[in-house]
Amino acid sequence: MSETIDLRSDTVTRPTPAMREAIAAAPVGDDQYGEDPTTNRLQERVASLLGKAASLFLPSGTMANQVALRVLTQPGDDVIVSPESHAVWHETGGSAANAGVQFTTVGARGVFTAEEFAAAVKPRGHVIYPPTTLVEIENTHNRSGGVIFPQADAVKVCAAARERGIATYLDGARLWNVAAATGTKLADLAAPFDLVGVALSKGLGAPGGSLLAGSKELVARCVRHRRMLGGAMRQSGILSAAGWVERCGSPGSSPPRASTRSTTTSSGCATIMPTRARSPPRSPRASA
Ligand SMILES: Cc1ncc(COP(=O)(O)O)c(C=O)c1O
């Protein structure tokens, strides 16, 4: 029987047998009391991989983006993003409904420079402008076919934002791909940003889940907004366990070594990092 390879999206995947075993064996507790050991350990591990003080598990990448907007902006604010970013095209208007923000798009094919960013900033306190309070970078860029945002530009954009008191958010749903493709450490990719979102369900094959990482203070505020959006779960270790599976480990085993390489092994065990970014397609249309 021939096997179908479904190329609609890197999310159209099935959990590996190792993931299913990890899910079945996961120790769990009530995560709303902070008592799910599997989720707690995953949060610690992802925070450490990203070089941040804390991280928070959420059901989806869309919710991670929405929570980030709510934590880092006020209704009526302006957010600078790349054209065709996920937040603008693929979240069904959630950013307007949930955070009340408007977007200004700059650059092309998923990337922009610090100069383009600076030229688009609208100052605070102006009588008619909506204040720019956040810049969001998507890396890799979904609708641009997996384009990697050059790290040197990300560093400059974030420095220019900081000078102006503008917050910085990285939609790094596929940040693992950037690390694997460029050999850059996840912590270095995340370093310029106040808050970073990463997904377990893109390319990895985990059934769902994303994490937001940042300072303890920011992540504590994310907890409240996750709850407001209905994303606070109970025995979430059932879901987060699949993100733990690496090098055939399990949530109960000792934490695997941090790595920026490797993907599904020959024995079918998934790792937390897929190997490489997708090459640009002919059309900029991409999956959700
Ligand atoms: C760049 C990016 N951010 C966020 C998301 C949202 O993730 P989810 O499908 O888990 O809501 C996606 C989904 O493909 C994405 O490509």
Our measurement of the CA-to-CA distance between the termini, rounded to an integer number of angstroms, reads: 29 Å
CATH domain class: Alpha Beta
Give the overall shape, derived from the CA principal axes.
Answer: globular
Q: How would you spell out the order of helices and strands?
A: HHEHEHHEHEHEHHEEHH
Give the strand order of the largest sheet, numbering strands 1, 2, ... along the chain: 1-7-6-5-4-2-3
Q: What is the fold-level CATH name, i.e. the topology?
A: Aspartate Aminotransferase, domain 2
In terms of DSSP E residues, the strand content is 5-15%
Helix segment tally: 11
Write a concise synopsis of the structure shown.
This protein is of the alpha/beta class and 288 residues long. It has eleven helices and seven strands. The protein is 34% helix and 12% strand.
Topology, element by element:
Layout: H1 17-25, H2 37-49, E1 54-58, H3 61-72, E2 78-81, H4 86-89, H5 94-99, E3 102-105, H6 114-120, E4 132-138, H7 151-163, E5 167-172, H8 175-182, H9 186-190, E6 195-199, E7 210-214, H10 216-228, H11 237-244
Parallel strand pairs: 2-3, 2-4, 4-5, 5-6
Antiparallel strand pairs: 1-7, 6-7
Helix pairs in contact: 1-11, 2-11, 3-10, 6-7
Description:
By secondary structure, this protein is an alpha/beta fold. The chain has one domain (17-248): Type I PLP-dependent aspartate aminotransferase-like (Major domain) (Aspartate Aminotransferase, domain 2, 3-Layer(aba) Sandwich), CATH 3.40.640.10. It is 34% helix and 12% strand. The chain has eleven helices and seven strands. A seven-stranded mixed β-sheet has the order 1-7-6-5-4-2-3, sandwiched between helices. α1 crosses α11. The radius of gyration is 18 Å and the shape is globular. The model is unreliable at 247-285 (pLDDT under 50). It binds pyridoxal-5'-phosphate. Pyridoxal-5'-phosphate (PLP) binds at residues 11, 60-62, 65, 86, 138, 142, 171, 173, 199, 201, 210, 288.
